[in-house]
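Tip: read the tokens left to right.
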């Protein structure tokens, strides 16, 4: 009976401890980097014992992966769902601008929480400089599902489009959206500058129209 009660206590506390470790790891990894953050640091800051890291994640490396996966999977799910919704509502024949706008809005949405988005971007920068993730993690969790959904949508929205162009198209759109978010934040902090500022919504509309024109040019359509 005592063993059963003990097991029940661990299971009851499992989710809070696991979430505390993930939250703490995200903060410390973004501030210090992977190598400079020890398991003891993580456990102490999360208010649990060192064994908890191995109990819930198996290793510091797996905890690091889960910190990224906690962002990757929801972001990808939102983006794919936005495309699926457009496809469903259009009976599989979406308007190009509607498809691109849905994707752009879904891409920007997770970045609305500036504090968390900023921390995650620090993590991404550190990871690009000093790689510790499995090489295929980002590919499997983000790139493949996103490209697959966009390929389906773009080919239906723009008949004649060469499917081999889809990866370049998605790279271009994502690059524009990331730049739009960063520019808004940097210009928002800048003072005494003559650089013109535009509402993010206006920038997104421009990206949609600009990208749609390029996609139609790829497909050989006449741009009016």
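Filled-in amino acids:
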């Amino acid at each position: 009976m005592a063993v059963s009660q003990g097991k029940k206590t661990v299971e009851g506390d499992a989710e809070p401890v696991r979430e505390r470790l993930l939250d703490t790891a995200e903060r410390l990894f973004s501030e210090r980097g992977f190598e400079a953050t020890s398991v003891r640091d993580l456990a102490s800051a999360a208010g649990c014992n060192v064994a908890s890291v191995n109990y819930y994640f198996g290793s510091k490396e797996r905890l690091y992966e889960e910190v990224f996966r906690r962002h990757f999977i929801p972001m990808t799910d939102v983006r794919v769902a936005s495309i699926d919704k457009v496809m469903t509502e259009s009976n599989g024949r979406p308007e190009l601008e509607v498809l691109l706008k849905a994707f752009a809005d879904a891409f920007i949405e997770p970045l609305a929480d500036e504090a968390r988005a900023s921390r995650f971007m620090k993590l991404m920068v550190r990871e690009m400089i000093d790689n510790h993730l499995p090489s295929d993690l980002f590919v499997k969790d983000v790139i493949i599902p996103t490209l697959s959904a966009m390929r389906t949508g773009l080919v239906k929205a723009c008949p004649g489009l060469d499917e081999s162009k889809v990866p370049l198209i998605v790279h271009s759109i994502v690059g524009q959206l990331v730049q739009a978010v960063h520019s808004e934040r940097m210009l928002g902090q800048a003072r005494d500058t003559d650089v013109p500022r535009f509402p993010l919504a206006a920038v997104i509309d421009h990206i949609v129209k600009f990208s749609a024109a390029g996609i139609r040019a790829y497909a050989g359509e006449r741009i009016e």
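Residues 1-12 have pLDDT under 50 and may be disordered. The longest helix spans residues 2-32.
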